[in-house]
Amino acid sequence: MAGDTRERMIEATVTALQHRGVAGMSFTDVLAASGAARGAIYHHFPAGKAQLVAEAAERNARDVSAHLAALPAGSPLEVVEAFFDLVRPVVADSAAGSGCAVAAVTIGTGSADDDASLRRIASTAFTAWADRLAERLSAAGLDPDAAGGLAATLITLLQGAHVLCRAAGDLAPFEQVARTATSLVGGRAEEH
Amino acid sequence: MAGDTRERMIEATVTALQHRGVAGMSFTDVLAASGAARGAIYHHFPAGKAQLVAEAAERNARDVSAHLAALPAGSPLEVVEAFFDLVRPVVADSAAGSGCAVAAVTIGTGSADDDASLRRIASTAFTAWADRLAERLSAAGLDPDAAGGLAATLITLLQGAHVLCRAAGDLAPFEQVARTATSLVGGRAEEH
DNA sequence: GTCTATACAAAGATAGAC
DNA sequence: GTCTATCTTTGTATAGAC
User: Fold this and answer.
1) CB–CB of A157/A130 below 8 Å?
2) pTM of this prediction?
3) Which among A167, B21, B77, B162 would be 20 to 30 A from B191, CA to CA?
4) Which among A25, A113, A159, A174 is the top mutation candidate for probing chain B, defined by the most B β-carbons within 10 Å of its own β-carbon?
């Protein structure tokens, strides 16, 4: 289990980012959660916190992307419903105090260089997620523009739901939005 | 200009929250921006950072609420379009590095007590904003359930757009979502 | 009520033994 | 490659003069 230390540190960093954000996360947390020693940080991540956070964000972005790739085929409405079902557990974590690690690195450390790099990672991730969704919606028969717009809207709703549900402490905001969104895509705004 | 120091400190804290979040914000920033002295913090805010941040979040929440109250009357579609026009400049600030101060306090400091208090403030604010919007949509003829669902969805989209636009560094994600949302509310999902 | 000075804790970053 | 120990900086919090 030689090379596992690095992996464990990245995983611990993802968790720390989700709970406390970049500025609120400390090496102490990561070290305690990963069981690594203090000096291990600069051994595995010579550029320090910026590098560790960047790799953690990229890791989390890829994991989410993989989940989105598992969305089943079907009609546009079915894809939308499957999307909400897929992300519900993640938003539930947000309601319990965990959040989106990629959104977290959007705030950054205060260093201009590091922040620009982190925002770029986050932006790339969001685009990749939306692209995955757009593929499914295109396959479901939507024209490319509509698929892209709807996919971007769903990702935006997901990020907003993280924020609202974390504040509320429960899934209620997410459920209300999911109902409204599926209803709108289904073509009836007033129905319940 | 005796009592103005407190006000300036709160304003400076709102700005600091928007740029760095709770954990990333320091008294040094607030002091420099407000021109206050170090001891002034615990003179005006005996409970320290938690109290200062809480008051800043409440202040920002009320300001936004006041802006939402200025939304003009009209059809549901017109209200939605007016909403996007109203928040566009705010999201543009997000794209430039500033964000939503209320969303920022959602992450918190790490202290369990303070975090619960801050999340409660944020949740109350989001609900208040959605209620304002829902009033306008009800006045526009939507039934209460549909108005509430659409209002919550628009606030969620707003928060998501803050995150996506901050990452992207421009307004493109917001504009795409605004187009899709107005199109969906207008009843045509595929049109451009 | 406002300011200066400082105590105390925690953060990130390094050096060097093993 | 892994660990211990420590340096430096920065942040919150407080005491007390004016």
Assistant:
1) no
2) 0.95
3) B162
4) A159
